Every structure is written in structure tokens, then in C-alpha cells.
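tl;dr need the bound structure. longer version: we got a ligand (2-oxoglutaric acid) that a collaborator sent over and nobodys looked at where it sits. i said id run it. heres the input, straight from their email, havent touched it
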Amino acid sequence: MNASLFDDEPAEMPLAPGATMLRGFALAHSAALQAGVAAVLAQAPLRQMLTPGGKLMAVWMTNCGPLGWVSDRRGYRYQAQDPVSGRPWPALPAAFAELAQQAAERAGFPRFEPDACLINRYLPGTRLSLHQDRDEQDFSQPIVSVSLGLPAVFLFGGLSRGDKTERLDLQHGDVLVWGGPARLRFHGVMPLAGGRHEELGEQRINLTFRKAG
Ligand SMILES: O=C(O)CCC(=O)C(=O)O
Ligand SMILES: [Mn+2]
């Protein structure tokens, strides 16, 4: 049961130095976030990117904000243009920027100014293998990660790939923030279980906010 459904304030759980789970933090903004996702997808549709090795990534992705994360045969990087359209990525919807800043502040990072939001879509069976987020210029800024739709099991590891991973259950509306000493911790997502979310259907949407440039 999600305690945040009964509390005025969302529950805030320190996980490790620099890492905080904000259970249900995005619930009150769910409709605005979903409207924002729909607006972004209309301009920059989800797509499967290629890994540098030439494989299709399982997660469908797009971006909004001044910079977008892309992967292709040339590698991983941030760029201002959507490679599919050649146009700038759609602007960060106001509700996105506000939520990301509030979540970061709540987790102890008061001056977070994201310039990139990666939108990830998982269908049942989709997983994301263990990785670090390290394509950004400035590791003093945290990662703010918002979960919408079907629940997922998030793997939260250590600073080395082989470190033990903790399993975190991420539900619709949960926000996970990691920065400071946790900024380079390995993480990933277990294969998404099937199911149907009452608002988002058979999918999980993740919004990952970063200061990339
Ligand atoms: O979907 C998630 O919860 C994590 C996404 C992620 O780690 C990434 O996009 O780098
Ligand atoms: Mn990541």
C-alpha cells in the first residue's frame, strides 16, 4: 500500500547518501505530466535508437528540453537537434521543469536546472541493463527520475558494475533522485511485468531529468 495516498505530504525515504525516494511525489502532477508527454511525442515521436554496436535499443525514447540524449553508431551524446526531424527538441513543458526542481530540492539539491529530459517507454518485457549516467558535463547536478504507468523493479547498484544491487519497487508517481556521492551509481530496470495501468495502459513511462551541458 502506498502511504502517500493517505498523507498530505509525500513520503521521503533516504536510500543512501545522495539518493532519495520520493514516493508519490508526482501523483498530484500526473495529468499535467501526461499532457506534457503527449505534446512532446506529437513533435518528437518515440523511437528505438541504435547502440554504438548497431543493435536496436529495447526502450523507446525521445527527448525534450534544450539538449537531448541520443545514441547511434557514433556513440552516446547530447545534442540540440532531434536527429529524426533535424529540428530542435520540443521545449520542456512547464510542469516538467517545476516538478524536477521541486523533487531535487526536496532531496537536498536546491539549485537543479535541468536542460535535458529523456522520455523512456517500456512495454512488457522491456528491460534496461545496468549502466551509469555519465554523458553529462557536470556530475555535481543530480538525476531526477519520474515513473508513470506500470510498476517496475529498479536495480540500484554501487559505483562499480559488480557491486551488489538493491531492488526498488517504482510505482506510478514515484520520483527517485540520485546525486552527490550517489551520482555515478550503476542502475537499471528489470524486464517490465505485464499489466494494465488505469491511466497509461500497458506501458511504463519514465522521465529522466539531467543537467547535461
Ligand atoms: O527507467 C528508469 O527508471 C531509468 C532510466 C535510466 O536509467 C536512463 O534513462 O538512463
Ligand atoms: Mn540511467
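gonna send this back to them w/ a short note. The first strand starts at residue 11 and ends at 16.
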